[in-house]
Amino acid sequence: MEKIRKAVIPAAGFGTRFLPFTKSTPKEMLPIIDRPTIEYIVREAMESGIDEFLIIINESKESIRTHFGNNVQLEKFLEEKHKKEELDLIKELPNKIKVEFTYQYQQLGLGHAVLCAEEFSNGKPFALLLGDDVYVGNNNVPATLQCINAYNETGSTILGTLKVRDEDVSKYGICEPFDMNCKDRLVKLKSVVEKPSLDKAPSNLAIGGRYILLPSIFKYLKTQERGKGGEIQLTDSILRSMAETSAYSYEIDGRRYDLGSKRGFLEATVDFALDRDDLKDDMIKIIKDRASKI
Ligand code: UTP
């Protein structure tokens, strides 16, 4: 079976839920403390064994490209000041990995963004990580690695999923397993449906921004008609591909933060600070102080 070495990160959406910030700055550059969201995502892929990266951007998202390149002037400045720690912080990723970029010129939806990765995929299966979903995998196993392990077991399309509350099913692609009573994390799927109303949702198993896709997906994306919200939906093409190749849901063991939403941004900031030795005590003090005044 083909080893998963490539990752595609779509980051070309307008990010309307985070306006006015996203008028000038990509939501993928929202910081969780001191790193942009998309850096956590790239690191997750690195830690999952990926060594080829494609980020899909639009013309107003050049700051993402800048972040993954070298800043020669700043490097020189830090070298002269003997600031080794800071130098390592900005040189580590450009030294370790090569990130390619491509443009999605019209924001026609996630399916359309993924179609921009056909050349990069070069006939190989690849991991897809949405540019605004951050995971902290349990037992130090990154979410993408969990999905890759599921792919290695099945050789099939893998949808990384999470269980969501009833009121949230209409915000996600929702999975229909063959065996609705199966308690395993890995379950074979009968169908998938994008953003169903609660009465039409087959389950609470939502696609959570992590996928392993087979190269045959492009065949379906090329002929995909617009779906929910008038967008070219990846979920619709995955459903069509299931007539030919099987797909599985893998329920990710970990915590997800939706950085495209304000609540997710707040949660990530608090949790990541609580998880850091240099910030934990300050964050606890801030929380206690504010809570005592409410
Ligand atoms: P979202 O569903 O969060 O859409 O996209 P969005 O347009 O970015 O944000 P909102 O809903 O208006 O606030 C999920 C991921 O897919 C990318 C986004 O950048 C994000 O990482 N995307 C979405 C594209 O690359 N192109 C698109 O046309 C749509």
What does this structure look like?
It is built from 11 helices and 13 strands. Helix 3 runs antiparallel to helix 4. Helix content is 35%, strand content 23%. It folds into 2 domains: 6-260, Spore Coat Polysaccharide Biosynthesis Protein SpsA, Chain A; 261-294, no CATH class. The mean pLDDT is 96. The structure holds uridine 5'-triphosphate. Residues 10-17, 56, 104, 107-110, 112-113, 130-132, 260 line the site of uridine 5'-triphosphate. Uridine 5'-triphosphate is lined by residues 10-17, 56, 104, 107-110, 112-113, 130-132, 260.
Strand order of the largest sheet: 5-4-1-6-11-8-12-10-9
How many whole angstroms does the radius of gyration measure? 20 Å
Taking pLDDT < 50 over at least 5 consecutive residues as the criterion, the unreliable ranges are: none
How can the largest sheet be summarized? Answer: 9 strands, mixed
Strand content: 15-25%
CATH structural fold name of the largest domain: Spore Coat Polysaccharide Biosynthesis Protein SpsA, Chain A
| Average pLDDT level | 96
Question: How many domain regions?
Answer: 2
- So what's the CATH class of the largest domain? Alpha Beta
Oligomer: single chain
| SSE string | EEEHEHHHEHHEEHEEEEHHEEHH
Q: What form results from the Cα inertia axes?
A: globular
